[in-house]
Amino acid sequence: MDRFQNKSGFAIESDSYGPPPTYDRAQQTTGSKWAPKNWGKKTIIGVVIAVCVLIAVIIIAAVLGSRANAYPDYSALSYSLEDTYSGTDFFDNFEYFNTYDPSAGFVHYVPNTTAQQYNLTYAGQDSAVLRVDYDSGTDSSTGRFSVRVTSKKQYNNGLFVFDVIHSPYGCSTWPALWLSDPSNWPDNGEIDVMEAVNKATSGNQMTLHTTKGCKMDVKRKETGSVLEKNCWNGADDNSGCGVQGPKDTYGETFNNNGGGIYAMEWRDEGIRVWFFNRDSIPSDIPTDVTNKTAPDPSTWGEALADFPNTDCDISSHFRNQSIIANIDLCGSWAGTKSIYSGEDECPGTCTDFVANNTAAFEKAYWEFASFRVYTAS
Ligand SMILES: *[C@@H]1O[C@H](CO)[C@@H](O)[C@H](O)[C@H]1NC(C)=O
Ligand SMILES: *[C@@H]1O[C@H](CO)[C@@H](O)[C@H](O)[C@H]1NC(C)=O
Ligand SMILES: *[C@@H]1O[C@H](CO)[C@@H](O)[C@H](O)[C@H]1NC(C)=O
Ligand SMILES: *[C@@H]1O[C@H](CO)[C@@H](O)[C@H](O)[C@H]1NC(C)=O
Ligand SMILES: *[C@@H]1O[C@H](CO)[C@@H](O)[C@H](O)[C@H]1NC(C)=O
């Protein structure tokens, strides 16, 4: 009996396979149909098409592969301090927004005189406070007094360092620290640095909102969790492209740690946001605002949120941005029933809560140590 080993090592008895196969004699003598010289026209066209398709597939795969790996060059820029918002004149650099809330909130944004009268904005030596009315006794049955301020100065690129001591939270609240050009929205874009709703127990959300043609379905280097990837305001009910930070980046936990620093770098290569707890602020961010030393984000490690320019031309989507701080109530995010009473388990209806629970708004305040803006030379 003839035994042999095949490649995978099994012993096969050759005689158990019957007679050897017979070959078609005609093919052996006139040449195989696999030999090109014997192909008909149709076969040749078919093969040419198949080869073309194969080449196209290889090219597309290569392009997709290199696109998936594309990433901007965020090499260090040389920054210098341009503006400092701090001290008793903090609010002098802002306009008070005083018309109906475009986000459909149950709120009355008050002018500066009313804000001062009810102490809703207060700028001391060490910090500035912006709050929702909680003890004035004014009628809140059509909405509660609150504040929205917009920096008089507009920016194009820069490194924005926000030193935040306390973030507002509580049922019905929708606070934000953001940048936008509200009279040219969404054309000039929106950059949300801090934003949360209601009890705000699941961390800070950082989001971009733009016109069509800005997507974040690309390679990114960030520690936060990715939410939606299309920044276009017409997609996903204007959710924007968001990134969620961990629990200590907003609300009660953040406040109990004495807050921290949010640094947002906006440059043509992309927009990145870092968060530093009060006790882990990098040494190149001086807490003393009189120290003009410029920070260097290239030394900070991976950002919390990264919005690279790979599939979003940052310089055409973001222009003329003012710094805005506000506390909305209810409205199209915090007040949506599935969020207010669903996800966030807040009582009754949002507007009833705002109208009838004055004392609930004591914690609904921002406290800022300073804002600093650095520009690259
Ligand atoms: C209040 O705002 C008005 C209009 O911007 C401005 O003229 C005025 O100086 C401000 N007053 C205070 C006390 O800030
Ligand atoms: C106004 O608010 C600030 C900050 O919360 C506080 O320090 C100050 O005592 C308040 N002023 C009055 C008159 O209530
Ligand atoms: C300014 O801040 C930098 C960086 O934190 C520090 O190295 C430097 O000593 C500070 N300068 C002064 C005068 O405090
Ligand atoms: C930005 O603001 C400047 C000064 O107000 C204005 O001239 C310019 O047209 C604005 N650019 C855009 C794109 O809105
Ligand atoms: C607030 O409470 C009053 C009295 O309990 C009630 O009549 C009213 O419907 C509630 N809601 C609002 C929005 O005022």
From TrEMBL:
Region listing for Disordered, in residue ranges: 1-34
Keyword annotations: Glycosidase, Hydrolase, Membrane, Transmembrane, Transmembrane helix
Entries under PANTHER family matching the protein: GLYCOSYL HYDROLASE-RELATED (PTHR10963), PUTATIVE (AFU_ORTHOLOGUE AFUA_5G02280)-RELATED (PTHR10963:SF42)
Domain GH16: residue ranges: 72-342
Name recorded for this polypeptide: endo-1,3(4)-beta-glucanase
Taxonomic lineage of the native organism: Eukaryota, Fungi, Dikarya, Ascomycota, Pezizomycotina
Transmembrane parts of this sequence: 43-65
GO molecular function annotation: endo-1,3(4)-beta-glucanase activity
GO biological process, one term: glucan catabolic process
EC number: 3.2.1.6
Family named by the database record: Belongs to the glycosyl hydrolase 16 family.
Keyword hit for Amino-acid biosynthesis: no
InterPro entries with a match to the protein in the record: Beta-glucanase-like, ConA-like_dom_sf, Glycosyl_Hydrlase_16
Matches recorded under PROSITE patterns: GH16_2
Record CDD domains: GH16_fungal_Lam16A_glucanase (cd02181)
The species this protein was found in: Salinomyces thailandicus
Pfam family, one: GH16_XgeA
